[in-house]
Amino acid sequence: MVNENAQLYTIEGISASILMLVTTFLVISSSSIVTPQETHITDMQLEQLGHDALLVLNTPLENGTSSILYQCIRDDPPSHPGLNAAFNANFTQLLNTRIFSGNDTLHFKVQLYYRDQSSGEIKPPIDFTSDGVGYFRENAVKVTQWVKMGSDVSDSDLQDKIILVEALIWRS
Questions:
Q1: Taking every pair of C-alpha atoms in the chain, what is the biggest distance, in angstroms?
Q2: What is the dihedral of CA 164, 165, 168, 172, to 10 degrees?
Q3: Residue range of the domain that includes 92
Q4: What are phi and psi of 74, to 5 degrees?
Q5: Apex CA 56: angle with CA 52 and CA 60, to 5°?
């Protein structure tokens, strides 16, 4: 005589073990622990991306020519709104372009600092943002780049000055 109770216990045991494995997988995959070391890596990557973008803008395309960043400041001084549009278009494209997927969601606020020759004081920063909105994130990184202006700048305040371009970048 064959007893079918053993078969029932086997099926019940297998289904219970599968249920426990699925539950364990869901619990482990839904909870993640973010340590300061992991967020630091993301900040370093964002900082490197911003530094590279500013460096690309400040590097001439050919020998003997001016960089895009220099041209933006020279041709349309910071007191004019054209700098905002020209710089934003180039910097946004460099920051938000991804290789394998759509655009990224990086925003930035850029400030230009320079010293007044006559008074020796630092002028109030000239600032503009990627979307016209101020900075509202706490996980931002700051990158800087120096730009040496020549005597061919139309704005006399900026002639023969070294300008500090400071970009605050964050992901929304």
A1: 109
A2: 180
A3: 37-171
A4: -70, -50
A5: 155
**Two tokens at 83?**
């700098």
Which residues pair with residue 168 across a beta bridge?
A: 109, 142
CA–CA distances in Å: residue 137 to residues 51, 88, 125, 171: 19, 19, 20, 8
pLDDT tens, position by position, 77-87: 555 665 667 78
**Same domain? 15 vs 93:** no
Based on the domain organization, do 41 and 22 belong to the same domain?
Answer: no
| Residue 67 sits in the same domain as residue 102 | yes
Are residues 23 and 103 both part of a single domain?
no
75 class by beta-carbon count within 10 Å (0-12 exposed, 13-18 middle, 19+ buried): middle
> Which residues lie closer than 8 Å to 149 by C-beta, 6 or more apart?
70, 73, 74, 158, 159, 160, 161, 162, 163
Task: Give the pLDDT of residue 25.
Answer: 92
Q: Are strands 162-171 and 141-148 parallel, antiparallel or unpaired?
A: antiparallel
Q: Which residues of the chain have pLDDT under 70?
A: 1-6, 8, 34, 36-39, 76-84, 128-137, 154-155
pLDDT of residue 54: 93
